[in-house]
Amino acid sequence: MTISDADARPRAVLGYLPDGTTNLVFADAQGTSRAVVGVEPDGSTHALFSDRAGKIRTLVGVGADGVPSVSVLNENQGGGSPEAP
């Protein structure tokens, strides 16, 4: 399911990936994925927040074992854009 803005640019996508992950991805006006909330097949959860360049800067999650985690990354540590469903 895709929600688009007035210019028909996708801004939010709810989807199911082949590995069984369900994600809700939010994009900025340029189409860069900026926030992702999801549930993995094992029941773990995640929320990822990216900078304007699409690098992941903050990760929050709860593992399948119930252990929470929070990571804050500087511009040199951030990973690539979160995958959109």
Explain the overall architecture.
The protein contains no helices and seven strands. With 85 residues, it is mainly β. It has a single domain, classed as Outer Surface Protein A, domain 3. It is flat, with a radius of gyration of 13 Å. The mean pLDDT is 90.
Q: Name the strands of the widest sheet in spatial order.
A: 1-2-3-4-5-6-7
Number of helices: 0
Helix content: under 10%
Unreliable segments of 5+ consecutive residues: none
CATH architecture: Alpha-Beta Complex
Counted up, domains total 1
TL;DR?
The protein has one domain: Outer Surface Protein A, domain 3, CATH 3.90.930.
Pick out its properties.
85 residues, mainly beta, Outer Surface Protein A, domain 3, 7-stranded antiparallel sheet, 0% helix, 48% strand, flat
